[in-house]
Amino acid sequence: MKAVVMTQPGGTDVLQMQDVADPKLENNRDILVRLYAAGVNPIDTKLRKRGPLMNADKSPMILGCDGAGVVEAIASDVQNIRVGDEVYFCHGGVGGPHGNYAEYAVVDERFVAHKPKSLNFTEAAVAPLVLITAWESLYDRANLQAGQKALIHAGAGGVGHVAIQLAKLQGADVCTTVSTQEKADFVRQLGADLPIFYKQKDVVEAVMEWTNGEGVDVAFDTVGGETFFQTCPAVKIYGDLVTILEPNPEYGTLKTARLRNLRIGLELMLTPMLQNLIVEQQDQGKILQQCARLIDENKLKVQLSKTFPLADASAAHDLLETGSMLGKIALQIRE
Length: 335
Fold this sequence. Notes:
With about 325 residues, this protein is of the alpha/beta class. About 30% of the residues lie in helices and about 25% in strands. Helix 3 (about 130-140) crosses helix 4 (about 160-170) and helix 3 (about 130-140) packs across helix 10. The mean pLDDT is about 95.
């Protein structure tokens, strides 16, 4: 099959289209998916630059956690998926030859969900990682409730724009940071109550004005670095602060968080895959099932902003690394 591979860490030039062996069904719950599209995520660019998170001895490496396609073959004990089913999933792409920048992928049926009927393959392929990340962050880590107020950083980004919608579906009020008027208009369309132009307005000050000096019940950091520590005083005493990045002590301390008795949540949706936690990976498949229903009911959407052919994966990485993307990027593998 054709696949975009990397044989060593580096710049976007290490991504090369090659012929590689087709993946095989190895376990009794495996399915073979003929991929039509793959999502491009920040984790892909990080792994391209730093190297794999697992199976580091296997070369070449195929990136891409997100995929969507049609089931072409199933193993002996597959229960809920049939040949010909249209599916989407987040699995693979963190080490070795099992990624989705390719024509085929093998994945355990328990980790996939039937593709939303209202989406084409390219639209569906960009959804899984951001859906699971936002869902776990707001619902599982922070236990966001109706009537609460939430701050979501980078609301026009891949995870952020999904998080706004999930927060609103839960009945929360949402403020979110943006950098341009275009992004402000976009997040308002998603339901955000208050866009904060963080380059022009102090975020903590804006949050305190919005919450009458109390702070938000939940803050969701999708940016990391200084943003995580600068967000602490914007969270209500005894509130929740969830981040998808590792807090770096070079940028601050947790003194303010401790004084405010904040509950800190660390979200890495890749943990079940990295630790081979079957039940937790199955739970993520169930999240995708619920999200597919919400998408088909027109209650949730994932913004696809740019599509590249598979052979242009390097250009997709270049664009993502500019940091100015609104929504998501996909690689189209088949028409």
